[in-house]
């Protein structure tokens, strides 16, 4: 993270593009896992729905850069919802029912880990933007 650059990057990508890729990952994860597990439950599509929202708002931040701040705050909110949704795995772990439904619990773990890391990167990005703003004032 170089303060000489005007934009935070992770894995060589701006947060808008990283968010777009993360949203697409969640969409595909929900669709593929629902297909593999032959699930008829709408809850197996939760990552898909969240990923769709992340994809929409990260795309909006790319198309409307003057509104990027609000759109990216909405994106991080859905990232946080993803991580919090993944915490449900701990309930099954505590009451001894972990991995009774393997695909559901795997999805919860993926949501917890990727959602937490995504929110971490978003927070780092917001801190970076704040430092850049303070430097230019």
Task: Describe the overall structure.
The chain is an all-alpha fold and 137 residues long. The chain has one domain (9-136). Helix content is 74%, strand content 3%. The protein is built from 5 helices and 2 strands. It has a two-stranded antiparallel ribbon. The longest helix is centred in the last third of the chain and has 35 residues, at 102-136. The mean pLDDT is 93.
Supply database-style keywords:
137 residues, elongated, 5 helices, two-stranded antiparallel sheet, single chain, mainly alpha, 2 strands
Integer average pLDDT:
93
Number of individual domains: 1
Low-confidence stretches: none
Strand content: under 5%
Approximate shape: elongated
Amino-to-carboxy terminus distance: 20 Å
Alpha-beta classification = mainly alpha
Cα-based radius of gyration, to the nearest Å: 17 Å
The counted number of beta strands is: 2
**Helix amount, in percent?**
over 70%
Note the total helix count. 5
Q: Strands across the major sheet, in which order?
A: 1-2
Elements, N to C (H/E): EEHHHHH
Mind summarizing the main beta sheet? 2 strands, antiparallel
Regarding quaternary structure, what we see is: single chain
């Amino acid at each position: 993270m170089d303060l000489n650059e005007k934009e935070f990057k992770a894995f060589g990508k701006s947060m808008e593009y990283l968010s777009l890729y993360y949203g697409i990952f969640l969409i595909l994860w929900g669709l593929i896992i629902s297909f593999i597990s032959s699930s008829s439950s709408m809850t197996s599509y939760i990552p898909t729905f969240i990923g769709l929202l992340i994809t929409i708002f990260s795309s909006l931040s790319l198309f409307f850069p003057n509104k990027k701040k609000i759109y990216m705050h909405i994106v991080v909110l859905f990232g946080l919802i993803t991580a919090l949704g993944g915490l449900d795995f701990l309930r099954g772990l505590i009451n001894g029912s972990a991995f009774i439904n393997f695909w559901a619990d795997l999805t919860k773990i993926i949501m917890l880990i990727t959602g937490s890391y995504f929110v971490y990167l978003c927070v780092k990005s917001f801190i970076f933007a704040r430092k850049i703003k303070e430097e230019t004032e």
